[in-house]
Design brief:
Chain lengths: ~260, ~260, ~260, ~260
């Protein structure tokens, strides 16, 4: 097995599909969004991607079964728009440049072969060591038309800077080359390894972009649990530290970073 | 030499062969089981696998000779069942994902080309920093039929979770793809680099699974030596440390970890 | 995407082109020189090189767009000599030997296919932990003729020793194999991550070599700002440290290294 | 440039050639032996090996020229035996398993294509942190005949154990596969990064094996300088340390390790 391969689980005909890429990354925002959509929309498994550039791991299943690590495409038919939505989620991204270029190029070409013209990748936009209570949603996109359209739903363009690592960036860069419309949609995040608040902000925007009904209760639950935990830790930090330091507001933050 | 290659040492006809994979890994359980079977069954060398994804090492031999690092297939004819048993042992596994995918895919396709339909990989299941006196044997398998059959011999399914690294996991994942029956059989282990007790537990189960007579005296000897050493270290630890700590049972454990 | 690729942005006919390679490296001298020439000469984008051996990153643009990391060729027609000048600049070099050999071989063959016969790569020559006020410009070249010609412009041959890492070295080594004239031109540098003074020294020499009018005000500005900052830090260091140490001249230097 | 390549510098006809491989490695024994033979025998450059698995470096030459890192074959006609001797020396070995397998396989096949049947690789055999005053010369070989023949010249077989890393081991392992006679000849060494004494021991044995006249004055000079330095350091260590420690002989050794 020398190359990345995609196998169909169930080959449905798709209608002008949109691809949403929700893979592991900064603040786990991509995975949270992708898995939430998959669950809430009861999307069906469509295809599975395996790669020799993922880690050499097999995952043990609850039923005593086993499967290779993978990325997986799920499909949902959006009756409100008549378009198919493909959701790409997975266990991991490749750790090497060569793996990333191969896999992401494969994903974009596979989606193009299905007649796809629109790709949104989801990620986190890291602003440093703080909890973001009211996360903004930033975007970059392949073309002006896409930027204008997404702006209407509250996605902020031209304010994010720097590099996007991995699939969230490469898939959009490749979609441009293959003459598709692509955007990377990023929830503002900081400190947290798993930031449900940033994911919720992206989901709220996506509902509009995709014209989708999605219940957000489950992501809200994770968000609330995280925030409760953060408050407890802030309280503990304030109690444990010298008042002169606590008043500076830094004592608590240092403790919070242990959550990572 | 750009690809993994398998050379026959002696090309026997095999009868409905079963492959046992006993390679280096957690607690050295795979290697202990594989090498024990090879020795006790006086299995004959059947084929040798070389790979540019192993380390760039040659092994010096006692007779002044030298050989490339390798994995090796040995064959034994089980007269009680009329089936051939192939045992795969070796110096190492590949350290890279690309190497692991290539080698393990090669192993499974090679075994399929020999008419093989059943593969058991052997590994350790790490439960953390403690010596496991009565190790359980956990399993994951490609299909329900295999799980049912192995359960009868005391292998526990559905209780192990997480990822299996390397050949023990990938070979089973690949055997599923090639429509073979595969299971990874794992001896419960902790603390030790070389855990003969976990290996013994697996061997006892394997005797039943394979319907094999195998003498376990040699593995018992390693197990007893290890346990004697552990007791001495525990005694030394109890003597050296503050009684209030020793009674907590932790003083000994810290010392034991030096065995690793 | 398994291989390094070069796409034309605008395929001009070139006249006996000279290639200047100004990529990231020691003291950022290559990039400073390349980007300065590109800006001052208002060179036009000619071709873009992408590689799976660069990092897996996409760059966010000010206008809300996005692009893959790349190296880029710009072209300028030098009316004084009638020769085209190609300038290669970029976000990064590959981090692996395999990537470096592939990319640099590709660059040289691409340039040869354009009728090119002369390549100058730009780099820094590190002489250790000190600021170089009057940097010399060292060179190595493929052939005696090139060495003689460049010597006339003040480039010093036969005094630099050691290894040249990456594109600055490999492109010249490959140009020799493809029977082209090549030289690596290196500005003497030390301590600094970004050494505009070393870049200025190279630019002054290059003006002569290429028979080019280039305004150096912008590079001078960076140089002056750096030197002002260095002086402030030296002053601070002298004030903060024990006089017996400060007189040894080392206190200041240690502080300066923070600029890196 | 995706593959290792060998270019002829001067394609001589060879007479039943013997290949001596003297590349960088433990104690620099291989390089010292290879370069000493090349210099003393005034061997002529025969072929050059380049590889994308070496480091991405170009070497600056004293004359202002530049060359890619490489391994180089030199040829000498041994009039006493009528056989050609090829000596392989070089700047480095590859750092990756994949590179090592490709390069060493290429070397052996290249040598076989020249009609070669006998290969001796040179290395150091590390016995730990001590200076070896009277180094033994150990060997491993592909076949009994070679072992017997080399034993007559004082090379010790069957006493060395463990793994041989890199070219010294792989070339011999590959020569076995290609049905050639091969041996790895190792000088006993310890502590030193550059051990001329171990190299001298190998050279003395090689003179007999190859039936060669080689002057050893130059290697003797390096050996004597090293030993003088070691004595000075031992003296310094004895003076600086507590007498009770110095008498234990360890104080000096610790200091000597700085030479590395």
């Amino acid at each position: 097995m020398k190359n990345t391969k995609i196998f169909y689980n169930k080959k449905n005909a798709l209608r002008d599909p949109i691809l949403i890429v929700g893979l592991p990354g900064i603040g786990t925002v991509g995975s949270l969004v992708g898995e939430h959509l998959r669950n809430e929309l009861k999307a069906k498994k469509f295809a599975t991607l395996y790669s020799p550039h993922f880690l050499h791991q097999a995952i043990m299943l609850k039923n005593g079964g086993v499967r290779l690590v993978s990325n997986r495409f799920y499909v949902f038919e959006n009756k409100k728009t008549g378009r198919s939505i493909l959701i790409l989620v997975g266990d991991m991204q490749s750790g090497s440049p060569e793996g990333q270029y191969e896999i992401n190029d494969k994903v974009v070409r596979f989606f193009k072969s299905l007649g796809g013209r629109t790709i949104y990748t989801i990620g986190g936009y890291n602003i440093g060591n703080q909890y973001v209570h009211h996360p903004r949603v930033f975007g970059v996109a392949t073309d002006k038309e896409t930027r204008l359209q997404l702006s209407k739903h509250g996605i902020i363009f031209g304010k994010a800077a720097g590099a996007i690592w991995g699939s969230a960036g490469l898939i959009i860069a490749f979609s441009k080359r293959y003459k598709m419309h692509g955007a990377c949609i990023m929830g503002e995040t900081g400190m947290l390894e798993v930031d449900a608040n940033a994911a919720k902000a992206v989901l709220e925007v996506l509902k509009g972009v995709l014209n989708l009904d999605v219940n957000l209760d489950n992501i809200d639950k994770i968000k609330n649990e995280t925030e409760k935990l953060l408050k407890e830790l802030e309280g503990a930090a304030a109690g444990n530290t010298d008042p002169s330091q606590a008043s500076g507001g830094n004592g608590g933050k240092q403790h919070l970073s242990y959550i990572r």
